[in-house]
Design brief:
Blueprint: H1 3-32, E1 43-52, E2 55-62, E3 65-71, E4 76-83, H2 86-93, H3 95-101, H4 107-125
Antiparallel strand pairs: 1-2, 2-3, 3-4
Helix pairs in contact: 2-3
Length: 126
């Protein structure tokens, strides 16, 4: 085989991978229900933890309540329910502002480092 044939095969493979990635992205967006004007889902999985090979504890958000359930192959049990605060509902409605407010674990450290750097720069100028 000549080198142009290998280049042609590699290029076609890259195109197929790009198309596959695009299809997977669209399918993931459709799963949330916000694509093409579809209504958002009423039940959201907040977190899921596996506690045994076939048993899980799942935290669901339904309207204004969080529901903690246990799931096994034989049954599903409601463990507890918690009211959702207004702050959590607002964070869920505006996820971009939640990232700006620094809800991740590194945000306080980043703010402190930024303040220290600004203080050091001001000290050097003086």
């Amino acid at each position: 085989m000549s080198s142009t044939n290998w280049l042609y095969v590699a290029m076609n493979f890259a195109i197929v991978l790009a198309l596959l990635g695009g299809v997977l992205y669209v399918l993931k967006r459709m799963q949330g229900g916000n694509l093409l004007g579809m209504p958002a889902r009423k039940i959201k999985v907040i977190e899921m933890v596996s506690v045994a090979p076939r048993q899980k504890v799942v935290l669901l958000r339904v309207k204004d309540q969080d529901v903690l359930i246990g799931v096994s192959p034989q049954q599903i049990n409601a463990i507890a329910t918690f009211p959702v605060s207004a702050d959590e509902l607002q964070t869920e409605a505006n996820p971009a502002t939640a990232a700006d407010e620094g809800n991740n674990s590194l945000a306080p450290m980043a703010r402190r480092l930024s303040a220290l750097l600004a203080a050091a720069q001001n000290k050097d100028k003086a």
